[in-house]
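Margin note from the TA: students keep mixing up input and output lines. Inputs are the sequences; the output is the structure of the whole complex. Example:
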Amino acid sequence: MRFVENMIKKSRLMSPWIIHFDCGSCNGCDIEVLACLTPLYDVERFGVVNTGNPKHADVLLVTGTVNHRNRHVLRQLYDQMPGPKAVVSIGACNLSGGVFKDSYNVLNGAQTVIPVDVFVPGCPPKPEAIIDGVVTALNVLKAKMGMGPAPEPALMPGDADVAKTAAAAGESSA
Amino acid sequence: MSRTTVIPFGPQHPVLPEPLHIKFVVEDENVVQAVPQLGFVHRGLESLVRTKDFNRMVVVVERICGICSCIHANCYCNAIEDMLGVTAPPRAQFLRVIWSELHRIHSHLLWLGLFADAFGFESVFHQFWRIREHVMDICEATAGNRVILSINVVGGVRRDLVPDQIRWMLAQLNEIEKGMHELTKTMLNDYTVQERTRDIGVLTKDDACLLGAVGPTLRGSGWECDERMHGYAAYKDLNFVPVVEQDGDCYARSKVRFYETLHSIALVREALNRLPESELAVKLPGNPDGESVFRVEQPRGELFYYVRGNGTKMLERMRVRTPTFANIPPLLHMLPGCKLPDVPVIVLSIDPCISCTER
Amino acid sequence: MFFEAKSVTPETLLDEVRRLAEAKYRFVTMSQTALDERALRLYYHFDENLTLTDLRRACDLFPQSGMTHLCMEVDKDQLIPSISSVYFCALLIENETQDQFGVRFDGLPLDYQGALYLEGEVARGPYFTMTTVKRASGEAPPKGPQGGQQ
């Protein structure tokens, strides 16, 4: 029985199904997510399938600014996904509000609505970066299934000072 | 015996990648009414003009729409330049045309792919997106980013092309044209494609005008109306002819976009060959004051900017009317009477860009 | 381009718009700017669908030719006549104006009641709240129009 369970867990990681929700992006991130599925990048060769149904999905890709109307939709989508699940937040707008941060209808990022596991910065990030984000999300998923350690938080170049303080704070909170 | 049902469509829907919500009132399989609900993408960026100065606002207008960012910035810069009474130098005008037309090629290829996907022709979708990567390569190599090209500034452009790049771009354009010609037969003459698109979502010539359709939706209904005919930027010096089709159905609209792509390739080639020598940007004489309107042609149609300055660094008001905003009333007119399985084809035939619409 | 607009009043607006509709003008859009806390200026932009030969002649002289503009100044309290009965496509933009400036249009075929874009939790009328007026202390604030910030 244990063997079968492990088989299922492993197969889930080998073929992650993703769902893409466009909160309100400028389409820049959306077409880059879509470009990942097309012949040049072709993530389908790794078993990644883009599904439209949240109940079939393992990884949620969120793009765009979160506003007061679509936050309810985002929350519902997240709640409908079966666990364990991972969330990848893509693009500057989705990370923090981006250039629209000061606007009256914009919330500061998806992490104010749902828990986010992986952040992919960029405006828009390149398809390679998005694929990398999904792979990192798979490691998160693996850790959530109890099959491996959680991935180390990666920082941008120039974040060395932040890394030091994060490491100091991380020891106590981890 | 017919029964009336209401079917909600979107905002997260497998067929439509964008968060548009439409409520369909259907009797069996026939749509009798369509009511849109917007606001899932509303960012309220018109209000940002009061917190960012008019030079930095270029970055924000580029992010109204990622698919035609350069054209948004082009229109905004032209409107401000009109208020300031300056004209961008000739080389900048030509460079603006080159990047705008590259955006048009990439947007139309993207649309042709999605449209093929809407009637279930997935291999054509992948073929168009494969060709599109050539355009993305050109954009990345010349402007530094694949999707959002930040090359416009008020008064000119900030990047130049060197002869090596021009030679390479011309070679890439040949590749794109070759790929398009290979797909002509499949996209335009195929029996299945015609079955799914001909006489679907017909918009008559009079309706198109009265409902305020713009762009390929208007030109597909027989109006010879393209903002590029006004000759903004360098279009007055180039050999530009609008593409017009008479039938007004989904097939006519896809034909307009297909031939426009080929025409855009020709325009880029012509502009690259005739690129004049001059500086890239002019110095600005002060802060904008007064009111100004400007229109340019986006891949989806006419884009309209109204700006009002008050002599300070911040603009007082900016108003953007994007093409999809104008194309939604024609869409609502086309949908009643169609069959439910044709809905994705008709919705996609106006090339909806919801992030443009709601800003 | 600095443009010239013909002034109209709420009474003459519909006649003027009907005249343009008969002459086969295309409704482009409407622009709104708040002049001060009470007054709102509305521009109606129309486009004449010219043919290519007309344009080639005109574009050297007037780079953005072919447009007609109407200008109307209204008070935010008063009901503004809707032109949706003539141009159905004005519906969306009039609803958007209701959202953003807290005004009311009369005779909309599909009225979103100021909720086209915004959810209830957003303070209403984003552009309306941006004008600041100095008021002597003790003076009662004027009654805000419907949809103003609560």
